[in-house]
Amino acid sequence: MVSDMAERILGNAVMYVMGSIENPDVHLGVGKLVDIGVHQLILDTPVWWGICRLYNGGRFKHHAPFTERRRDGLCLRTSDFLKSQGWEIDEELWAIDGADCSPCDNKVPDSH
């Protein structure tokens, strides 16, 4: 069960990151659970650089989170947006945090 949950979280983190890269003008954010996977991607620097190199035109995708969580439904809007882009998100993971979202800021260029 633990490895299954880890795979679900990481898979949805990849969907979120790719959605952010492919749609830089769309404001997206994740809940606490999927954010764990996003941080795992970022912390594995060779993997993160590979994602940036292959899918972000070689530009580094910065991580610039807000310090306070937003509670305006952005997490749910992000899951809806990813579904509209053809991603098969894990509804349960996105619903767990619902409106409690950890969006990032544009403090640095090309951040998510």
Summarize the structure.
By secondary structure, the chain is mainly alpha-helical. The chain has five helices and two strands; from the N terminus they run αβααααβ.
List the helices and strands and how they pair.
Layout: H1 2-22, E1 29-30, H2 32-43, H3 45-55, H4 74-84, H5 91-97, E2 102-103
Antiparallel strand pairs: 1-2
Helix pairs in contact: 1-2
Description of the structure:
There is one protein chain. By secondary structure, this protein is mostly helical. It has one domain (2-103). 55% of the residues lie in helices and 4% in strands. The protein has 5 helices and 2 strands, in the order αβααααβ. The protein has a two-stranded antiparallel sheet with strand order 1-2. α1 (2-22) packs across α2. The radius of gyration is 13 Å and the shape is globular. The mean pLDDT is 85.
List keywords for this structure.
single chain; 112 residues; mainly alpha; two-stranded antiparallel ribbon
**In terms of structural class, how would the helical and strand content be classed?**
mainly alpha
* Head-to-tail CA distance between termini: 30 Å
| Rg calculated over all Cα atoms | 13 Å
Order of helices and strands: HEHHHHE
